[in-house]
Amino acid sequence: MLDKRLLDILACPLCKGPLEYDASHEELLCRIDALAYPVRDGIAVMLQEEARKLDPASRDSAQHE
Length: 65
Known about the structure:
Elements: H1 4-9, E1 20-22, E2 27-30, E3 35-40, E4 43-44, E5 52-53, H2 56-61
Antiparallel strand pairs: 1-2, 2-3, 3-4, 3-5
């Protein structure tokens, strides 16, 4: 689980847009770039090479807090 205050200040490293936390997959989602950044042991890994591309179905139906 990410701290809400941390989530408020984090931004996508590519587009600088907002991120959403998907607790069920432990990822930070950038809907603009269609990328999901992993959160490992409570630490967001904000590297493009570690992000996975979101498919259209998961972009629209991802659960987030």
